[in-house]
Amino acid sequence: MWVQILCGLVIYKICKKLFYDDDVLDVETSDSNAIFSVAARLEKLYKGKAYVGLRIPDPDTGSRQNIDIVLITKGEAVVMSVKNLSGFVTVNADGSWVCEAVGRHRSAVHPDPVAEAKKQASILESYLEQRGVALPEGYLSYKVIIPNPKFRVINASYFPPEVISYDQWMLMKSENKSMLSGWIKGAFRGGKKEMQESIHQQLNFILSTAPIWDRLEVKGNKYVLGEFLEFKGKQEDIQALRYIKRSKVSRLVVQKTSMFGLAPSRLQVLYSSRDYRSEGAASEWNEVTVRSSTEVLFQPANSTKVRKFKLSSVTSMSLSA
User: Fold this and answer.
1) How far is it, in rounded angstroms, from Cα 294 to Cα 126?
2) What are phi and psi of 316, to 5 degrees?
3) Which parts of the chain are beta strand (E)?
4) Could you report the per-residue pLDDT of 36-50, keeping only the tens digit for each?
5) pLDDT per residue as tens digits for the range 87-118
6) Are 228 and 271 in contact (CB under 8 A)?
7) How far apart are CA 30 and CA 147, in angstroms?
8) What pTM was computed for the model?
């Protein structure tokens, strides 16, 4: 009996080592996953639409400004900067944050997050004007959200009101939005309903067609924002996947089949063709079958390192136009 148990443990460890992608473990505490979690909760709390991973063109620098979340509600738009920081944090006189990890004798300095969020809001407002939407004064605001429970503040009084601490974030409830009174101000309380509806519709259309990061969803509802590069694997599998390019495909879904609880040797990949005639909507779904050992090369946002994800650990991938 003991021999059977030991053999079972050995087989389990071998299978886990072979078939479980170590990158999935990294995603559990990634900034991308924190952003998606915050966006989902904001939509639930405020019955609005949260646009995640925007890359708004900045005419002053000729580059793109990354924006974590833009929340659109009836009467207001809010730029959300999500700081998934942990450790003890102090605020310098120039507004920068010094974060010291617990149990480590080293610290990291982060540029003023509030100033960064303010700049993002300014660039977004300019982008919206270029696309024909001039927002009324006070319609667009910005906030910095701290969703990490391991975040500790040395002196909370140094934080400006634009910062939503972890404790404040946890106190927010749909039945008691007054916990953070004045956050969602309702800039159009006295405005005309027709104008409010018009701006609301225009914002949703523009942001739904704005440049975004590619996004990878892996096991356990975990996400990675960044840029899809290519597939790696056997030549025949790469040939089968040759059609999956951002110019032609908007989204793919990986379906797995297994036998006796073991990892599948083949995977079905469904992908939707991009239809530019209907605002980027998918026109049809196609299917290819490839080996589970095929890999996805993906470069996470704000990282210079290219990561490899086994296709067997991937749930879906969305590609920006």
Assistant:
1) 42
2) -160, 165
3) 49-58, 63-73, 76-82, 87-91, 97-100, 107-110, 140-145, 151-153, 163-164, 214-218, 222-232, 249-256, 266-274, 282-291, 295-300, 307-310, 314-318
4) 999 999 999 998 999
5) 888 888 899 999 887 666 678 899 999 999 99
6) no
7) 12
8) 0.82
